[in-house]
Amino acid sequence: MAILILKTLCYNENGTETLTIHRKNGILIMSSITLHSAEGCSITMISDIFVDYYMPRANGEFVKIYLYLLRSMHNTGTQISLSMLADVFSCPENDIRRALNYWDDAGVLSLSYKKDELSSVLFLPLEAPKKKPSPSPAREQRTQEESKTKRTRISQKDILRRKEENAEIAQLLFVCEQYLGRTLSPSETERLFYYYDELHFPVDLVEYLVEYCVSKGSTSIHYIEKVAQEWHKTGINTVEMAKKETTTWHRSYFVIMRAFGIRGRNPIDSEIAFMNKWIKEYDFTIEIIQEACSRTVTKTGKQSFEYADKILSDWRNHNVHHLEDIRRLDSAHKAEQEAARQKARAARSDQRGTAPSSPNRFNNFEQRDYDWSQLEKQLLNQQ
Q1: pLDDT digit string (tens) for 291-324?
Q2: Domains and CATH numbers, the chain
C-alpha cells in the first residue's frame, strides 16, 4: 500500500525552519525535525515552477546565468553588465545575450533596451505551462534528434549563405580548414564568425590567429578563443600587431628561461602563465625579471618559477620599476638588518648588567692587586 507523506515547511517564532511530516492511515511516519543553519549568509529563493518546468528544458549555462542574476537581486552593490557577466562565466558577451534572449522568449525575463543597448531585466511571475500528454521515451529521443538535425541544417544554410555573399568568408573558412586539418563544425564556424563580426578582426587576422595556434601545437577551438580574447583586450587588430606581439613574447620567454639556466626545451603552460603575468600584468622589464630569476637560483639552487613569482610580487608591492629601485630596496633591507643586530647586542648587554663595550674579551678579565714585596720575601725563604 502506497503511503502519502505530506511535508510542511514553516518558521517558528525564532525564525528556525521546522519540517513537519504527517501521519497517514494512523501510521506515524516521523515527528517534527528542526533544521538549523550554521551559515549567516542570505538565501536566494528559487521558484518551484522554474525548477519543475523551465530548468529541465534549458541549457545548463543558461540556467547558471539566470541563477546568478537572481542572486544579484539581493546584492545592491553589484554593478551588472554584459561584460561583467562575461568575465564571471569566462565566455563571450554573445553567449550572455543568447541566455538572456532565451529566458526572454521563455517568458521568464523581460528585457528592456535603450538605443539598442540592454538597460534593464525584469523577473516575471512564473506560471506552470499547460500540461500535455507525455511522449514515450522513444518519441522524445526521436524529437530531440530531429530538433538537433534541424538546427544543424539551419546553421549550415546560414554558413552557405554567408560564403555565397562574401568571398572573403569563403576563403577564410577554406584556409582555416587547411590549417586545422578537418572540416569545421557549425559551432567552430560560428566562433570564427564571432571573431569577424563581434571582435572586428579582419579576415587575414583570423587566418593568422588559427595559424599561430596550430603552430603552438593546439587545434582546439577553446584555445583559439582564449588567444583571440587576449588579442582583443590588448587592442590587436592587424596581422602586423599580432606578429609583433607574438614574436616579442616568444623571444622574451626564452630570455627568461635562459636566466633560470633552462635550455633546449619549450616552456610548459604553467611557466608561460607565470611569464605572462610578469610581463603583462606586473609590466616588468626583462632585466628585472632576469634579476629575480638569478636570485631564485642563487637562493634555492633550483629553477623555481614559484619562488621567482614571490620575489617579483614583493617588488611590485614596493613599486619597483627599474634596477635602481631594487638596489634601493637592498640597501634599506641591509640597514634594517644592521639596526636589528645592534638592538639585539644592546639587549644582551642590558641583561648582563653591563654597558656595551668593545668586543675585546680581555676587557672583561677581573684585574687583581698583588703585594710584590711580600711575594719577593716568600720566594727568598723558599730558597
Answers
A1: 999 999 999 999 899 999 999 999 999 999 899 9
A2: 1-36 (no CATH), 48-123 (1.10.10), 167-237 (no CATH), 246-317 (1.10.10)
